[in-house]
Design goal:
The chain has 112 residues and is mainly β. The protein is 6% helix and 22% strand. Strand 1 and strand 2 form a beta hairpin.
Length: 112
């Protein structure tokens, strides 16, 4: 499986599409794999000192696997905050009401 951990001492990986599963559960393959074939070591894809995720950057489907590949199991995160305020001049009545639009809260303030 792509990205899976490999047992210590493993020196090559043969992709499952290149093997035949026998009736007894054993597998065979036609060519002998080369040393380190299909193996990426932790941190191999970046150099020491490279910035891989900047402070304030949104974590997504690209940055999370990258952090995991570097052996970083946890990062400190902060929730994002978004505020919207619409101001209108209208008739007397309630001076403040909250409406929901696309899952985000918007405060509507009436000026008298």
């Amino acid at each position: 499986m792509t990205g899976a951990m490999i047992p210590e001492g493993t020196d090559a990986v043969v992709m499952q599409e290149d093997v035949t599963v026998n009736e007894d559960g054993s597998v065979t393959f036609d060519t002998l794999p080369k040393i380190n074939q299909n193996i990426r070591r932790v941190g191999e894809d970046v150099k020491q000192g490279d910035v891989v995720v900047k402070c304030g950057q949104f974590l997504n489907q690209f940055s999370l696997p990258l952090l995991a590949s570097l052996g970083i199991p946890q990062v400190q995160v902060f929730p994002t905050f978004e505020s919207r305020c619409l101001i209108y001049r209208g008739r007397a009545g309630s001076s403040r009401t909250t409406i929901k639009a696309k899952g985000k809260s918007t405060t509507l303030i009436a000026l008298r």
